[in-house]
Specification:
The protein is mostly beta strands. It is built from 1 helix and 7 strands.
Length: 102
């Protein structure tokens, strides 16, 4: 399962969704359906809108998500790639792949 652990949320004036910073493990692709989880519970479903290729010195990445996720995301949340009615082994190829979490 691909997951993104949120370590920072940065609203910006030039776009409606904030930059969500964190560590990614697994495969992500712009347009993926994603699920926001907090303390083991599902909070919302949405879409990965964009990601930044440049990594921070701490190995963090910046993602932006649809309003359904952006309105509810908090520090410490986990956002996972969500494939409705499809086993994760049949996932489509990724444009971004991280196996180390850095």
């Amino acid at each position: 399962m691909s997951e993104f652990r949120v370590t920072g949320i940065f609203p910006v004036s030039f776009r409606p969704e904030p930059f969500v910073v964190g560590h990614a493990i697994g495969d992500f692709e712009v347009g993926n359906a994603v699920e926001l989880r907090r303390a083991g519970e599902v909070i919302a479903h949405g879409v990965l809108r964009a990601f930044e290729f440049h990594r921070s010195p701490r190995g963090e990445l910046s993602f932006t998500f649809s309003d359904e996720i952006s309105q509810h995301v908090r520090l410490g949340d986990i956002i996972v790639r969500w494939i409705p009615d499809q086993p994760s082994s049949q996932a489509t190829p990724s444009l971004f792949r991280s196996s180390s979490g850095r």
